[in-house]
Amino acid sequence: MSAPEGYFTVYHGSLSVNVPRSLFKGTLAKVDAKEADSFYELVRSRYPWITRNSFDVMMDKARTEYLRIRDEETGGISTSRRLASEGDKKGAIAHLREHLEEDPDDADAWMELGKLLCETGNTAEGYKAINEARKHY
């Protein structure tokens, strides 16, 4: 059974929990502390043996899974933008190239790659990527 709309499933030992996507904010998927506290209380009401430390470990897993899901849903763009915002534009470019090897028809990924290449001064290759994107729209 899959998670309801707006949620994704995280496994913590033998426990599976549907985690609301609304707990995570921004490109870096930072945990909204107020919503996390509310979610902790809900989890504790259903599973009273869950400690705060155990919940925090589960939330670390949830953040990692959320980032993976977002990257999958956006064709690599989410992780690429996160890497670029952290100052790793080479890593962002490499991540998009890796995705494009698997899905060479992804126009949005080509466009994002073109923008990043232009930002790093590689305009000739950037324009080629943008032109490739146009072929797939």
Topology:
Blueprint: E1 7-12, E2 15-20, E3 24-25, E4 30-31, H1 33-46, H2 52-73, H3 77-85, H4 89-102, H5 107-119, H6 123-136
Antiparallel strand pairs: 1-2, 3-4
Helix pairs in contact: 2-3, 3-4, 4-5, 5-6
Description:
This protein is mostly helical. The protein has two domains: 7-73, no CATH class; 77-136, Serine Threonine Protein Phosphatase 5, Tetratricopeptide repeat (Alpha Horseshoe). Helices cover 63% and strands 12% of the residues. It has helices spanning 33-46, 52-73, 77-85, 89-102, 107-119, 123-136, and strands at residues 7-12, 15-20, 24-25, 30-31. Helix 2 packs across helix 3 (77-85), helix 3 (77-85) runs antiparallel to helix 4 and helix 4 (89-102) packs antiparallel against helix 5 (107-119). The longest helix is centred in the middle third of the chain and has 22 residues, at 52-73.
Quick tags:
137 residues, mainly alpha, Serine Threonine Protein Phosphatase 5, Tetratricopeptide repeat, 2 domains, two-stranded antiparallel ribbon, two-stranded antiparallel sheet, 6 helices, 4 strands, 12% strand, elongated
